[in-house]
């Protein structure tokens, strides 16, 4: 099953869902261990020369993505809520953005166990419908759906429950 994107007309959110053929604990490990996240985060051809995560409320997630053309951009987020292995929430590390930067967003991932499968749900909540539109135009939903497909491949070929 591929990732599915929903954008309600009257609410400033993007909801992306995906079911993984992996137990919840393994999906959690793949999503919260920076060594694992560096393998799958970003679209095809993207790499992660920097990925550090202090997975606790108030902890920093710093991620540098390198596009296939060599362009690098940094993402810094603050974890708000951490409930292993079922919920992880974070927001932009700063509320002040330079022109051209993505709008402020709070993202929450929930993991629901279904036997040996895991239902993954991401809700990205924006301050307005116009902020959501800007973010989507910048490629937010595309990058996330491509990332979760790479995560599915990572889960098929690696055991994130073991250190690598």
Distance separating the two termini = 27 Å
Task: Please state the CA-atom Rg, rounded to the nearest Å.
Answer: 15 Å
Strand content: 35-45%
Poorly predicted runs are none
Neighbour order of strands in the largest sheet:
1-2-8-7-6-5-4-3
The secondary-structure element order is EEHHEEEEEEHH
Shape from CA axes? globular
Counting DSSP H or I runs of 4 or more residues, the number of helices is 4
Q: Report the biggest beta sheet as strand number plus sense, adding barrel if it closes.
A: 8 strands, antiparallel
Question: What is the count of β-strands?
Answer: 8
Structural class estimated from helices and strands: alpha+beta
Instruction: Tell me roughly what share of residues is in helical segments.
Output: 25-40%
- Compute the average pLDDT: 92
Structural commentary:
The chain has 164 residues and is α+β, with helices and mostly antiparallel strands. The chain is 26% helix and 38% strand. It has helices at 24-32, 34-40, 129-137, 140-157, and strands spanning 4-6, 13-20, 47-53, 60-66, 72-83, 87-92, 105-114, 117-126. It has an eight-stranded antiparallel β-sheet. α1 (24-32) packs across α2. The longest helix is centred in the C-terminal third of the chain and has 18 residues, at 140-157. The radius of gyration is 15 Å and the shape is globular.
């Amino acid at each position: 099953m591929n990732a599915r994107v929903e954008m309600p007309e009257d609410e400033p959110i993007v909801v992306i869902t995906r079911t993984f053929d992996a137990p919840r604990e393994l999906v959690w490990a793949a999503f919260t261990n920076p060594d694992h996240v560096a393998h799958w985060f970003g679209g095809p051809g993207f790499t992660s020369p920097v990925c550090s995560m202090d997975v606790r409320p108030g902890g920093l997630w710093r991620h540098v993505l390198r596009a296939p053309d060599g362009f690098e951009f940094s993402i810094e987020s603050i974890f708000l809520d951490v409930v292993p292995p079922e919920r992880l929430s974070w927001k932009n590390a700063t509320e002040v953005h330079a022109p051209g930067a993505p709008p402020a967003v709070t993202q929450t991932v929930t993991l629901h166990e279904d036997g040996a499968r895991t239902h993954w749900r991401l809700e990205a909540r924006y301050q307005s419908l116009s902020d959501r539109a800007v973010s989507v135009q910048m490629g937010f939903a595309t990058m996330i759906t491509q990332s979760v497909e790479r995560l599915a491949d990572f889960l098929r070929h690696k055991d994130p429950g073991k250190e690598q």
